[in-house]
Amino acid sequence: MSNLSGAKRTAGTAFASPSKLETAATSKRARTYYDYYDEEDVESSPEEEWSDDDLDSDSRMSLDDDEWLALQKPVSLKYREDAPITEVDVSPPPASITQCRCSVTSLTRTARACVDCDCSRWGYGCQAARCGCQGGPPCDNPFNKLDVQAVFGAAPARLHPCFVSWMRKQEMVRPELVTTRYLFDMVAEDAARVEARYGRWKGQPYRDWRARWDRLPAAEQEQRGTGGGGGGGGLALQQELVRMAFTTTGSDRGTFFSFCCPGDNWQDSDDTWHCAICGVCMDWRAWHCGKFL
């Protein structure tokens, strides 16, 4: 396959200074292991028993080859037995009933008003008719300025909570300047890991997309339209990958781009969940909520 065109852009890269990062080696997702033992193990001598030192030694004990490989290449998400289980409903409420309670008289741009309001937390823009801020100029809700249809395409799209958390944290990246190509350059190079790492069912949507992308002429691959006006095959395929990375639309495809896992960004949505309350991706077995709002 040909290389994906475009410079790799990091999550914090400003528009004026795109950067190229070296592709990290494909890593295998670490798994949680459970120790099983029989009577022979119980009667084994202390020298034969497992210890924490074995992780730093050349001893592989009874681990299979693929299990040892996973231990050698741990990822940032780890199982936590002590993780509290949240009782907070982290499903987004309907946009039609979500409203901001910010007072229009207290809003100041220096305070980045409405960045943490009820609307922005779920990826919704503030509305003049029902929000306290009235959606006016003092409101700094980034989703009032992000052109979702231009970036992701005309079809309805629900933003992934990890993307929502990332947008709310941005100070250098102005939401009104976010384009399809900006996000595409951020995710395209690492997207090849989906094909290398995931099985047929989870990886097939990317493989199908990549086959169509590789058939495009180079000029169309370099297309940098902002959407909204039928930007051609190149723009449509860029939007398709960006939707795969940053929306929950068609989430049965099984992967998303996580800003919480640098170096291992493309995550399995069945294993890794993003808490809209905490703003952090975690292994589903360690589902948590460290801050109740």
Main traits of this protein?
single chain, 293 residues, mainly alpha, two-stranded antiparallel ribbon, two-stranded antiparallel sheet, 27% helix
Structure description:
The chain has helices at residues 39-42, 65-72, 118-121, 148-152, 161-169, 180-187, 192-197, 200-214, 218-221, 232-246; strands at 255-257, 266-268, 272-275, 280-283. Strand 3 (272-275) and strand 4 form a beta hairpin. It starts with 38 loop residues before the first helix and ends in a 10-residue tail after the last strand. It contains 10 helices and 4 strands, in the order ααααααααααββββ. The chain has a domain at 92-144. Residues 14-76 have low confidence and may be disordered. A two-stranded antiparallel ribbon has the order 1-2. It has a two-stranded antiparallel ribbon with strand order 3-4. It is mostly helical and 293 residues long.
